[in-house]
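User: My instructor asked us to take a sequence, write out its structure as tokens, and then describe one feature of it. I'm not sure where to start. Here is the sequence I was given:
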Amino acid sequence: MDRLNRAAVITRLAGNLRKAGSWCGETHIQKAFYLLQDLLEVPTQFPFILYKHGPFSFDLSDELTALRGDELLVLEPQSPPYGPRYAPTKMSSRLEKACAGTMETYDEDLQFVAKVIDGRTVGDLERLATALYVTKRRESEHDGSVRSRAECLNRLKPHVAVEAAAKAVEEIDNLIAQLDEADD
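Assistant: Let's start with the prediction itself. The structure tokens for your sequence are:
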């Protein structure tokens, strides 16, 4: 996917996240994009690593900054202790129209991810995205069972209790099953 289409996907996702009740801070966008790529296989081609709050892409972070510079996204300051929220601009709707084919192709995926992200906290998103990371990218470190993947997540993120990790893994399994049913 080229930069223009990727930018349109980012701005549309930010708008969808806000409509779905998400805070739409950088962590929310990061986790949403990770789900788009690894769960829904949308080819946005951002490299992700496991970082402080789960999967994170430095390239996506740089792109968010560039989109602010291009006046396609704005950061809305919030009252302390809350961090800023991203919002698409009027110019971003023009970009999305120019990339209508991409928007049509991935609109359902963008809506699906926005519903999954919903009004979740950063901690919720960390657990969910890391559960997907363990499921898809760390297969050699577990036997595939919910318990084994939860223990793997806990080893990677010791502050996440195994029980909370197991709930996140089960949710990922349910999302994968949902998507598989929709494909049939």
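For the description part of your assignment, you could build on this observation: The radius of gyration is 16 Å. Try explaining in your own words what that tells you about the chain.
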